[in-house]
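Final report, results section. Input specification for complex C-07:
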Amino acid sequence: MAHLTLSGLTRSFGSEVILNDIDLDIQTGELIVFVGPSGCGKSTLLRMIAGLEKITDGTLEIDGQVMNDIPPSQRGIAMVFQSYALYPHMTVRDNMAFALNIAKKPKAEIDAAVDRAAKALQLEPYLDRLPNALSGGQRQRVAIGRAIVRNPKVYLFDEPLSNLDAALRVATRIEIAQLKEAMPESTMIYVTHDQIEAMTLADRIVVLANKGIAQVGSPLELYERPRTEFVAQFIGSPAMNLLPGKITATGPKTEVTLDAGGVAVTEIATTDTDMGRAVNLGIRPEDFVIADGDAIFEGEVEILEALGEVSLLYLPANMSVGEGAVSANQTHLIAKLPGIHDGLKGQSVCLTADPAKLQIFADGITMRR
Amino acid sequence: MQQALFALSTIIIGVFGCVAYFYFSNLLLDRMCPAKGPNAGRNINRANAIRPWLFVFPALAILSIYLLYPVFSTAYLSLHDSGGDFIGVGNYTWLAQDEKFRESLVNNLMWLLVVPAASTFFGLVAAGLTDRIKWGQLAQSLVFMPMAISFVGAAVIWKFIYDYRGDNQGEQIGLLNALVQAFGGDPQAWITLPFWNNFFLMAILIWIQTGFAMVILSAALKGISEETIEAAYLDGASPLQVFFKIKIPQIWGTIAVVWTTITVTVLKVFDIVFAMTNGQWGTQVLANLMYDWMFRGSPDFGRGSAIVVVIMLLVTPVMVWNIYNAHKESR
Ligand SMILES: Nc1ncnc2c1ncn2[C@@H]1O[C@H](COP(=O)(O)OP(=O)(O)O)[C@@H](O)[C@H]1O
Ligand SMILES: [Mg+2]
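Structure output:
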């Protein structure tokens, strides 16, 4: 039960600013996910909230109380680390009981809390083991149990699943989702660079980039209405195609003529002053369909990746690349078509898309209002 | 010139001797177990079993001569009197009754209880305090400095600290007496104070060994995962609780290794006592007693050797435990 208010939060190391002027409101019971490319300051922001990292400037409030100078243990938070950070010399039980022991809680209360958490996380058979006798998934559950036992107002997770193998990651992700459902009152902040985790877990996603917040919104909001090219290409895989072009008709339905020749009519409204403006047309690979008539893009399929349920078509094209979008393909347009399309390799195809799903970016910012 | 030639020829003979040994012994083995004929498979297995021994034999032999032979020779000597006649356990029964030996044994025991504990403790405190602070490195080098001084050198330095000038010998120059006088006390001849002088000598070894303990323990402290420490702070532990409940338990193995390593050094302590008091005023220790019997006055190799055997028997179990712990650490 806690809401957090971050206002003007800034962190710099020496003269180097890592995070600049972060403003964010987090409601009670929300599960917020911080995503962003590696090194953008997700962990730093989380650690500032935890009190492990100094706040250079700005204020952090939890339930209206300024927390800048309150020590970590008194902020009502618990943190789950990427490396689990279990105490290697203590049994699972002692690991989970450590905080309560330090707080000198009565023994009966400690045992009850540990047993309850162990039961919820299926850790009962391992309570007397040392951490190094546990598997990665079990260790992570102990780390989560250690947080639960303290009954904090805010849970902080720093990439808790990234040390697990793929199958275990899915299972543990679902466990965390169930855990959240069982504790609707607790606020959770979850850091990840994995967008599937972000999309599936989050009530709201905070995309961090360029020392600040690029966009905050629900997973689908970010997917359907990205505010910048960066967000557009960061959310979704493969990344959104950005095709350079010019606005050739304005009004409630803007028309973009691509440098490559195709014409796209979108459902984005523009005014006369935008006429002739150089823009990027954004189309998600999964929004492409093969056209019978007018095509937005026409080209030869150079590479075809058949994944069974979908096929990825790579068509040589001059692409625009949004700032910082590491995963975007610069030399090929990518289309993701459902099903198997064995015959298309080497063929010329005409692609089009639902006008409602098209995006227009001018100077990196969306033209949607 | 002649010496240089002699040295050169020794080197040449040694090197070529080694090469020749490896070459011909290898050749001989191949001849004896040829890798063909009816028994080829068995011969190859047999040759492979023998070959490693062939190669380590010279090293093994030299090690045995220089390490094992003295042990047995000492044990042998300890069963003989000064004239070289066999007297069985005579030297040991003499030891059991000797006043000085008993004093040495008690003193060694005191050294054993105090020095490893104090050195490890101070080393741990120094390592803990200098860990993760900016000028910690500088502080550590200062604490480590005495390690670079030989025991005798250290003894000379501390002799000045404990120095005492009698009534008609002018002003006091000892640091300790200066301090005592500054606080209004009377100067003392510290190293002749019965019983307490033992501790003044121990202080020297502690002063030296603290640096050793600090360096090893500081490396161990750095090896502790930063995140477990942060997790402990989040769990509400104070810095002291983090130190005692999180850090120390994680470096127990290293503490044991440091402790036992210093213990072995302490059991063999000689130089400091030799240089400071030479065992007078009730400060005798086993190693110095041994030296007295071996090389002083009318030497008695038998009694000296018997003392050596006692020291060795005391050191061995500690050594074994030390190696066991070090192994466990490095796994
Ligand atoms: N102690 C530090 N001194 C200087 N720079 C640091 C320090 N800690 C982190 N940084 C920098 O801060 C940036 C953000 O780091 P981090 O929050 O760990 O990124 P993320 O978790 O998003 O991958 C990185 O560029 C990193 O180099
Ligand atoms: Mg990180």
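The mean pLDDT of chain A is 91. Chain A is about 25% helix and 30% strand. This concludes the modelling results for the funded period.
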